[in-house]
Amino acid sequence: MDLSLSPEQQAFRTEVRSFLQDALTPEMRRGATLTSGVFAEPDVYLAWQAALNAKGWLVYFWPQGAGGPGWDAVRRWTFETECTAAGAPILPGMGLKLVGPVLYTYGSDKQQKRFLPALRSGEHIWAQGFSEPGSGSDLASLRTRAVREGDEFIVSGQKIWTTQAQFANWMFALVRTDATVKAQRGISFLLIDMASPGVTVRPILSASGDHELNEVFLEDVRVPVANLVGEEGQGWTIAKFLLENERGGTGYAPQLLADLDRLTRATTLTGELADRAVRLRLEAEALEMTELRTLLEIEQGNPPHARSLAVKLIASEVRQGIEGLAIDAFGMASLQLPAERPFHAADAPALVGPPEAGLAAARYLNARAWSIFGGTSEIQLTIIAKAAVGL
């Protein structure tokens, strides 16, 4: 595979770097640097989202017919790599990368006109209502029910591990609309206004002290039938489409490599620590090659090779390896774990040493969830064993 950039691709990379230099403000960079969780918070990322939207690059992974810029795989990879290297905030993907493609693929014209512009502008912030207590990896067993009454569904149930629901004003949710058929066939896909009576959000604080996750309780919430995406009973098909975007629509390697670069610049690694850093870099670079090969396969209209099934598993291991290396590299300075959040707030207490040291403990604890969310490592291994190895 030829990885050298053509003159046109080099010119595009120069254009991206120039844009990042002008558009990324010191406040955006500081907020991104002091983010200990997976995604930046709205007061950090909304200004960045607005800058990307104005440039026409916000939904760079959408097809041109849906409002994207029509980039090929190399341009998307170049853009992601340059953004991570420049320290841009990470935008939550629940709206842009998950429900957005669902809406332009399965949504009605009215739904697309109502929700897609508000998604891009940042007016609508989305949460994902899939997992429930006892229904995580076995998503088809979900119990949140939606009973139709005239032009409304009455929704009751509970969602859990709902990322950034404390900020969201909309949630896309899987609900059971028919309990008399096979589990997968009785599920539908609803858009729920978080301001509706009967919606309650309760925080779940992680071991790191971060508030990224929530429980969402739904008590006789009235949802217009107009907010049903697709047909009743089509939710499982839509969910599989969405999860393919979640697990295959983002490159992990650029962010991993950028974070490893920042760590090695912030401290001097010698001996065994230097060896660990080299091994992590080789693993991340190998992951990058796998992601690029998969992108090019999709670009050429071919199904991705079975090797792509290992991407999430390897990314989780490298992420946890980088955060473990930071703990060992910074020693005592890495053990601080301030209770105050967010770290980027103007009145947040000062950290000891560079941000990479001050946030090391929080990031280490937060990274333990990488082998759980988006499909546990055990589930990923089972998928690989069945689909790639034939066991």
List keywords for this structure.
391 residues; alpha+beta; Butyryl-CoA Dehydrogenase, subunit A, domain 2; Butyryl-CoA Dehydrogenase, subunit A, domain 3; 4-stranded mixed beta sheet; 4-stranded antiparallel beta sheet; 8 strands; globular
Shape: globular
- What's the tally of helices? 13
H and E order: HHHHHHEEEEEEEEHHHHHHH
CATH superfamily of the largest domain: Butyryl-CoA Dehydrogenase, subunit A, domain 3
Portion in beta strands: 5-15%
CATH class of the largest domain: Mainly Alpha
Supply the helix-strand structural class.
alpha+beta
Strand order of the largest sheet: 1-4-5-8
The number of domains is: 3
The assigned CATH architecture of the largest domain is Up-down Bundle
Biggest β-sheet description: 4 strands, mixed
Low-confidence stretches: none
